[in-house]
Amino acid sequence: MIRSAYFEPNNPVQFLDTIEAFKPKMNSKTGFLWVSLESASEDEINLILRDMFNFHPLTIEDCLSLGYQVAKVDDFINYLFIIAHAIKPAADLHELETLELNLFIGNNFLVTCTTEDHMSPIEKVWERVHKDFRLSNFGTDFLCHAILDALVDEYMPLIDQMDTEVEILEDSVLEKPSPATLERLLMLKHSIMELRRVISPQREMINRLTRDEYSLIDPQSRFYFRDIYDHLVRIQDLSDTIRDIVSGAMDIYLNSTSLRLNEVMKALTIVSTIFLPLSFIAGVFGMNFIHIPAATHPLGFYICCAAMVVIGIAMLIYFRWRKWF
Fold this sequence. Notes:
Beta Polymerase, domain 2, Methane Monooxygenase Hydroxylase, Chain G, domain 1, seven-stranded mixed sheet
């Protein structure tokens, strides 16, 4: 799907539905053009990016690649090529799916390319374009900022969801640790690492846009990119905190299970130790000798049982006195 819009200062936004409609606007000196390729075919990508805008073949290859591309910004003098990543929401945080977004920023054009249909940050900015005509008074760099800002804002609900999840798991670890809790902790730790893998290079990419490296980024727009950078720093700090809490909860789980195992082993050891002398006495009096002291006594059996009980109670008292349980 190809969508396009033409922005001109102090004029309403013109929404262009066909390639023939936006083609004359490509070299406009008074406004700028936004072309959005969403779930476009290879032929459409080659037509727009290669034949019409003459972008570098390596950037087109990155757009066509289905593998994971690291977030980056490349300067091709006449335009900037940016790769950013959005996070597809997951209800159970089982596995985070990253969505790649490619942006080409020129003086009078912005081209966005994604393999997804209706990517959330793109949809939000399209809705904003229909409502907020002030975007026409700014350049392509500000429109790029609006898209990246919407993309980064979607990280925060995910962080809040992880924070809530880790609090629940912490309580579960303390109250009743189970293998299911450990599995959930490992799953959450994997999700956190996946999120950090996305945020770290993206943070560096946004940081480069806040500097004076690129003439296509207006000095006034750098302040807005700096705001995105501040959000990413905060998100990364929160993710580091959640990761530390998850690691601490896993340590608590392992210590808790070890403590429970020690308690069980302690109880079994006490029982075994008590029955050791009792088994010895029963074994002695069960020997097949003719002359055994008290073997013929009328109360011999009862005396032996009483002695076993006394020995067991005495050993329990001794263990308790030594604070072994």
